[in-house]
Amino acid sequence: MLSKDTLFAVSLFPYLGFLWFLTRCPETPRLALIGFYVLLVFVAVTIPAGIYAKVHYGEALANIDWLHGSAESFLTLSNILVVLGFRQSILNYRKQQENTK
What we know:
Oligomer: single chain
Strand content: under 5%
Helix content: over 70%
Radius of gyration: 18 Å
Order of helices and strands: HHH
Structural class: mainly alpha
Distance between the termini: 58 Å
Number of strands: 0
């Protein structure tokens, strides 16, 4: 059976493939694409934060509020960018549809 750490590491490859295809799609909203890349920053920050929590505090990252919250802020930022990017794309599409009427 796969451990959670192995599964986490393996799951990175499909996500990188997703980003590769999304980057090559010209219809992808730029801000949303940035948000999807910020998710990689979240992963890059969470791993060392989890190691620090374990080594320094002897606890899981989820149990160290200030450290966990700091790492999760990158996830929040990622989600906001994705939503704003697709929102802007929808608004532009609606405006374009109104102009063609």
